[in-house]
Amino acid sequence: MHLLRERDAEAVRGRLGALSRPVRLVYFTEGPAGLVIPGRECRYCGETLRLLEDVAGCSGQVTLEVHDRISDPASSTAYGIDRVPAIVVLGARDYGIRYYGLPAGYELATLLDIILDAGRGAADLEAATRTAVAQLPGDVHLQVFVTPT
Question: Could you confirm whether domain 6-134 is CATH 3.40.30.10?
Fold first, then answer.
């Protein structure tokens, strides 16, 4: 079952048509383990997977790799994943981009921008912003939290 309507999939195909280099989406989920602990189940893992399958299906440059955090702890440790749903966006290298949660609604545009930036190997930033970032004394761990309204 697809989450993207055909009109939306066409728009995604148009956006991802700008990719000239491959991007790999590494998705982390938690499958049912038989014992469900209320409040601990991955509420949006299924929807996130279906959405990522739709996005990957919109471009031959985007591939999707799926890992279960419980049954494959080595992969989640390798990428520093400690919660699900989680998406690692890889271009020519790992830029440290981690997206947690369901990228639905307006957040899908954010994910598409991230995919395009990873494919380019650079973020689309103004010159003044690039200068300011270059002057930072060290690495910065940036987190953005979004809540549905």
Answer: yes
